[in-house]
Amino acid sequence: MRAIEIFLTNFIDRGGYELTLEGLKNTVLIAVIGLLIGFILGGIIAVVKAIYLNSVAVRVIKAICGVYVAFMRGTPIIVQLLLGHYAIFPLLGINIGSLPEAIVIFGLNSGAYMSEIMRSGINSVDRGQSEAGRALGFSFSATMFRIVLPQAVKNVIPTIGNEFITLIKETSVLSFVAVVDLTRSMQAIADSTLEYFVPYIVLAAMYLILVLIITGIVKLVEKRYAVSEC
Amino acid sequence: MFENLLEIRELTKSFGNNDVLKGVNLEVRRGDVIAVIGASGCGKSTLLRCINMLEKPDGGEIKLDGEVVFKSSLHALKQKQNQTDKKSPEYSALKEECKLIGKEEAAGEKKRLKLLNSYREKTGMVFQQFNLFPHLTVMQNITLAPMKLKKTPKELAESQAIELLNKVGLAEKSGAYPSTLSGGQKQRIAIVRALAMQPEIMLFDEPTSALDPEMVSEVVNVMIDLARSMTMIVVTHELRFAKNAANRAVFMDNGRICEENSPKLLFNAPQSPRLIDFLSKVL
Ligand SMILES: Nc1ncnc2c1ncn2[C@@H]1O[C@H](COP(=O)(O)OP(=O)(O)O)[C@@H](O)[C@H]1O
Ligand SMILES: [Mg+2]
Fold first, then answer.
1. pLDDT class for A230, splitting at 50, 70, 90?
2. Nearest CA-CA distance, residue B55 and chain A, Å
3. What distance in Å separates the CA atoms of residue A140 and residue A50, rounded to the nearest whole number?
4. Is the pLDDT of residue A98 over 80?
5. At what angle do helices A56-74 and A98-124 cross, to 10 degrees?
6. pLDDT of A103-153, one tens digit each?
């Protein structure tokens, strides 16, 4: 009981919740914007991979996409964050601050995974759909964006939900870098009181609640999409 | 006016080693309604798909409305080259010619590729499996292409769609999603979707083959009605359509058009043994 008292004193009376709120905000912000960047980037890569033309330009672009996806999936996100923060961003002379950096890197990372998700989504759409679009006179890209992708996205909504959950949880590695996320904020409280039990239980509970909320949202989105086609 | 709306000359197409079209010749006049019959696998779908370039032919020529859509002699030339003796002087001459023609055709093809989408607007296609867009309503299925490709204003596109839907007896379904429709209804909508682009010619690939028997006639009726005012190539074994609506019938066999006649004569007085054999099996 004393442990709880210590935590509450720190969390409420001494304003520890403010830091936690900021951490929560950053965690959600990075995951949401990262997911959005990943969604757009992954969609574009998946479409590029679906191009059937075999010109030199197309092959070069496909190769670049391939290397990018292999790198992002083949290295840990923490390494990508460190590499970005200490090497790539300074090298490019970009100074946008740790939080935007984290958002960009999570977006780039998610884009690689999302491209695979979107590719499986595109493959799940019957070939007759793109043929019908082409036969009407739509170009390859118009067929993709108007006809194939809407159906592809619908088919992978649950998988995108999983990717979102993964992102939320992965942001906890940011506590190693100079960004205050949810995990970092609780660590700070724990460190200041040297009482670790309660803060980490609360931390776990907060992630769990976040994930449950996301799961609920994904279910809602799925339902709404399903209405259009019952 | 060009007398022939569509001209197909010596059209060839292979998938790997499988020579599917081995030199198809067909001239289609404006207003023609051509029924195409032939055994499964003889290349009927491939022919239709080559006509609207869903499948790129290897060689030959396709002209629509006087415009060359596809033309290539490179493939035939290369085959000839492969057949000649590598040491003969003819071989190296052929090789040079291949190079030259290859360059020429590549340049011409780039130009044609740009026109391909607008060419496809002129050829409506109806598939065996309907291929309606499940994420769009019937109305959206029909108006999407006219609005986006022809820039038809929404109100106009919708009123034209309603007019066409009335003709096929499905106006009350305009707000429905495809998954709520029966097969016959889906195919009638698919026909309307293609017609909404006001094509010059309509291609049908076994439009009734995926339908339950009791739904065949509602689709055939729509097609017979349409045949009065549209140039059509219809791959079908529906005798009622072939006999009542077509003015020409062709029998495809082994990658070629093997026999052509008026539908009546083609079915009642077949000439080639292959056709006689085929008819005895399907009828
Ligand atoms: N995309 C393709 N790839 C490889 N082979 C194909 C393809 N499309 C058709 N074929 C082959 O071409 C032949 C003719 O097919 P098709 O034109 O569909 O015949 P039909 O419509 O007369 O039944 C068949 O042997 C088929 O296996
Ligand atoms: Mg077929």
1. very low
2. 10
3. 10
4. yes
5. 120
6. 999 999 999 999 999 999 999 999 999 999 999 999 999 999 999 999 999
CA–CA distance, B29 with A85 (Å, rounded to integer): 69
Closest CB to A132: pick one of B123, B127, B135.
B127
**Please, which residues have CB within 8 angstroms of residue B102's CB and are 6 or more apart in sequence?**
B74
Domain residue extents for chain A:
2-229
Q: Please, are residues A102 and A37 in contact by the beta-carbon 8 Å criterion? A: no
Cα distances from B31 to residues A158, A163, B232, in angstroms, run 51, 55, 8
Sheet holding B231-235, edge to edge: B123-126, B201-205, B231-235, B33-38, B248-253, B256-261
* Integer Cα distance of A208 and A216 in angstroms: 12
User: CB of A142 within 8 Å of any CB in chain B?
Assistant: yes
- DSSP alpha helices (H): ranges in B21-180? 44-51, 74-83, 89-122, 138-149, 154-167
**Hey, what long-range contacts does B151-158 have (CB within 8 A, 24 or more apart)?**
B157/B196
Closest ligand to Cα B55: 1
Residue B2 has pLDDT above 70, yes or no: no
Q: How many C-beta neighbours within 10 Å does residue B280 have? A: 9
- pLDDT value, residue A228: 59
User: Which of the listed CATH numbers 1.10.760.10, 3.40.1280.10, 1.10.3720.10, 3.30.457.10 matches domain A2-229?
Assistant: 1.10.3720.10
